[in-house]
Amino acid sequence: MTDTLRKALAVALSFISCTPVWAQQQMSIDPVRPQADIFRRPYLAPEVPPVRLNNSGRLADLIRGGNLYLTANDAVSLALENNIDIEVARYNPVMLAWRLERSEAGGALPGVPSASSQASSNTAGQGVLGSQQAAGITGGNNGVVRSSTNATVTQIGPVTQTLDPIFQESTTFSHRSLPQSNATGSAVQVIVQNQRSYSGSLQYGFVFGGAITVSYNDRYLNENAPTDVLNPSVAPSLAFNLTQNLLNGFGSKVGGRNIEIAKINFNTSDLTFRTQVIRVVANVLNAYYSLAGDFDDVKSKQTALETAQKFLSETQRRLDLGSSAQLDVTTARNQAAIATQALVNSQVTLAQQEVQLKNLISRTGLGDKALESVHIVPLDRITIPDSDNLPPLQDLVKRTLTTRTDLLSEQTSLKTAEVSSLGTRNGVLPTIQLQASRSTSGLAGAPRLVRGVTADPRFAGGIGTGLEQVFAQNFPTETIGGGGRFSVQNRQAQADYGIDQLSLRQQQLTTTKDMNQAQVDVMNAVVAIRQARARYDAAAQNRILQEKLYDAEQKKYAAGESTTYNVTQQLRDFTNAQASELAALVTYQNARTNIDQVTGAILENNHISIGEAQSGKVAQPSSLPAALPGNPPASR
Q1: What are phi and psi of 479, to 5 degrees?
Q2: Which helix (H) or strand (E) holds 204?
Q3: Quick one: pLDDT at residue 281?
């Protein structure tokens, strides 16, 4: 195999192995609606893409020589692309869009009559049993059981009408043998019937509390009774039925309250997403700068250990020359042991902080072996500006109340609760319903001469004759009426409304409390950052002082004017001062992040695009420099 062919094969294999990662990273999480004709499309389930579990390519680009080199911007970018909490939050707007669509479809579906009840029914006037039914005779249907399987759907407040048109169709074929206790009407002891029943309906509800239903029915009957003047016969019918709520359930605001709530939730879904992004960004920044502080602390502890070991060697040399006592060597060795333990503790803290940051910036965490084995090297150091440049407290509070996404979400929740309360308020009213219907029927069949009597010539024919009668409205029926349901004490509806309103009052108080707490949080954040600066200034001055004292003690020791104990004590104080200064640096940085988070300015101050966070792809390239700084701590 030539070198050219070998290289081409390697490139092809690498492309094949990398394609699934990039494809899955770029795949949208939105469900894909089915593509089919208008008749099949409503009954095909949308295709929901699988979860995205691969890290973005940015993570691999930042790993060099077994180390993951990160700036603070890179850490935030990785979190926006890979953090699982943000990925979970991306599903919320998608789900809210589907919830809105579901709300726009209306309320619960009406029950569908069971097939058994349809199979055992006859049109009044059709056949022997139909004639008996029309005459008020209920016998002759031995063994027939009518049942209903309709379910009752209840909710607090009026139920919204079904706003999607619903078409129902049922076809039944039956063969029945019915023994007759009185054969006067049928002239036979056992009626044998062959029936075909066709029924269909189209229902459409209105958001203001009404519904219209158009139904069509057709019954075909062929029986052995010699007394039928039409046998076989067909009985088609067409009916229009209109119902309208007048009190309980009336009004578009009541019927459309669930739609309005879904719209509010969908339109404000970005607030919840922003809140999650803010939380993750704050955690990443805190973890990054804590790691940077631990990173510097390890270097400081390494320097302290090297200094202690050099001093131990110098003390041992003096012991060999006879100018130092054995106790001096023991004191120096103790200081080296203390420095070694401090380094180990610092390395453990660094490793733990590393694990936390890895989990924030990746979807795989330590499950990825490549990520597990690398060490994070923070490139940005913590610096304290000359001044904090904080706006006046009142301006900070005003900004907080208008930009904090969690506070805005609470205010939105109040709006949805107020809209929802329209249902329980309306539910206190009695139920009064107006009904109006118009139907027209037809009857046709094969005329027979029975005892010198035959059927009216108008009924002679088949289904065409019956439908002609229906559309000509030869036999119309019109009804109008109404009814009501009045609870004597109506305690349940009143209790539902009272509970709903009391819950709303609680929510209003909670929102007010959180608004007040936000002002307290701003004040505390301002105090915290000022205290953090003061503590750092004090820690920095103390470190400078301890460094000078340690340097002076070393010179005195070299001149024979100091003891080993004094030198080790000054070294210990100097090491502790360095650690305190680093801790004060991290505290200040965390206070800075906290005030940005509390005031709702963290995304703006870190130049974070919420659109990029939603897409999971940050356009800004990595800021990793071509020439990297010095090596990371060798010992971990």
Answers
A1: -135, 150
A2: strand 190-205
A3: 95
Domain-embedded: residue 251:
yes
**SS3 category, 630:** coil
Is the domain of 307 the same as that of 390?
A: yes
Q: What is the CATH number of the domain that holds 332?
A: 1.20.1600.10
Residues 50-81 have pLDDT tens digits of: 888 888 888 888 988 889 999 999 999 999 99
Q: Is residue 460 domain-resident?
A: yes
- What sign has the CA pseudo-torsion 255, 260, 261, 263? positive
Give the pLDDT confidence of 399-447 residue by residue, as tens digits.
Answer: 999 888 889 888 888 888 888 888 888 888 888 889 999 999 998 888 8
User: Residue holding tokens 């919320």?
Assistant: 92
Residues 457 and 537 both lie in one domain: no
Q: Is the pLDDT of residue 149 over 50?
A: no
Q: How far is CA 448 from CA 232, 287, 459, in A?
A: 10, 95, 11
- The amino acid at residue 366 is L
In a domain, 33, yes or no: yes
Phi, then psi, of 42 in degrees rounded to 5:
-65, -15
For residue 40, the enclosing domain spans 1-53
Q: How many residues does the chain have?
A: 636
Distance, CA of 428 to CA of 499 (rounded, Å): 13
Rounded Cα distance, 463 and 465, in Å: 5
Strands 67-70 and 375-378: parallel
Write down the pLDDT at residue 109.
39
Tell the residue number behind the tokens 């200040």, with chain if given. Answer: 588
- What token pair was written down for 363? 């979807």
- Cβ(585)–Cβ(384) under 8 Å? yes
Where among 13, 38, 53 does a domain terminate?
Answer: 53
Torsion, CA 504, CA 506, CA 507, CA 512, rounded to 10: 130
Q: Residues 98, 267: contact at Cβ < 8 Å?
A: no
